[in-house]
Amino acid sequence: MSELKNRLKELRAREGLNQTELARLAHVSRQTISLIERGEYTPSVVIALRIAAIFKEPLEKVFCLKEEENEE
């Protein structure tokens, strides 16, 4: 199983944005940004692309899959 990791907190700090400001730019709620940052919500492709565009980064530099080891 894969887990979606992200760099939102790091990129927000780089740009001097708080969660509310990023949410406004991405047209989502602040709670959505918080959940994405904590890995508790997987954004739609549209939201992920919007966020990547805000930071002027390729999608894979903002979001990436981390493979989890399967216990067998």
Automatic annotation (TrEMBL):
Spell out the InterPro entries in the cross-references: Cro/C1-type_HTH, Lambda_DNA-bd_dom_sf
Q: Which PROSITE patterns does this entry report, sorted A to Z?
A: HTH_CROC1
SMART domains referenced in this protein's UniProt entry, alphabetically: HTH_XRE
Keyword terms: DNA-binding
CDD domains in the record: HTH_XRE (cd00093)
Q: Which residues cross the membrane?
A: none
GO molecular function terms attached to this record: DNA binding
Pfam families noted in UniProt: HTH_3
Please report the stretch or stretches of sequence annotated as the HTH cro/C1-type domain: 8-62
Q: Cross-referenced PANTHER family, in alphabetical order?
A: DNA-BINDING PROTEIN (PTHR46558:SF12), TRACRIPTIONAL REGULATORY PROTEIN-RELATED-RELATED (PTHR46558)
| Designated name of the protein | Putative transcriptional regulator
- Kindly list the organism's lineage: Bacteria, Bacillati, Bacillota, Bacilli, Lactobacillales
